[in-house]
Amino acid sequence: MHADLSPVIAATAQWLTRAFPASGGALASALCEVQARQAVTVAAWLRYPTAMDAALLGMAGPGGSGRLDWVTGADAALGDDVDAQAWRTWVDEVVASWAASLLTDPDLAERAVAALADGSRGTGAPAEFRRLLAPDDGDRNAAALLRHPDLLAPVAGLHQDQLLDRLNPGRTLIA
To answer: pTM of the prediction?
Structure first.
């Protein structure tokens, strides 16, 4: 990876797994986290495709989880401990929305990974994102909430149009 998006990827994946937790024990939590991280990685690489984009993100900041918390109702349970919630400032709302879209739409996830393979990253091999693209029964059971289209619809709907525009370049606009 030529630009360090790891703080945004880690925080956004953590937000997704806290908002839509795994059902089960430690293995289920790990499987859920891997799926969230793969979806967030694809979304972040699509959102910030160049080193310049990532550098601008580093300067301006990702915006935090405030609106996402409000949309999901998580803002009521946050409490007053600001230091314990500092990681939330690294959550990127657009990346979370795009990741939610990828987690709930297998065809869109395929197109997104294919766009990475065609792009400047030179990565995005399907094997690298196997749990996102081809989850087995264990993956699906562990991430039942994380992959539930109805539950993720409010988050996915925030910026899904931008993701579709990114994956469909050159589309003609009709007035």
So the answer is: 0.90
Structure confidence by residue, pLDDT tens digits, 18-50 = 999 998 899 999 999 999 999 999 999 999 999
Q: At a CB cut-off of 8 Å and minimum separation 6, what does 159 contact?
A: 93, 94, 97, 98
pLDDT digits (tens, 9 = 90+) for 99-152: 999 999 999 999 999 999 886 555 556 679 999 999 999 999 999 999 999 999
Kindly list the distances between the CA atom of residue 34 and the CA atoms of 89, 103, 130, 172, 174, in Å, as whole numbers in the listed order.
21, 12, 10, 37, 40
> In sequence order, what DSSP letters do the residues of the chain get, joined into one string?
--S--HHHHHHHHHHHHHHS--SSSHHHHHHHHHHHHHHHHHHHHHHS-SHHHHHHHHHH--B-SHHHHHHHTGGGGS-S-TGGGGGGGG-BHHHHHHHHHHHH-HHHHHHHHHHHHHSTT----GGGGHHHHS--HHHHHHTTTTT-HHHHHHHHHHHHHHHHHHHSTTPPP--
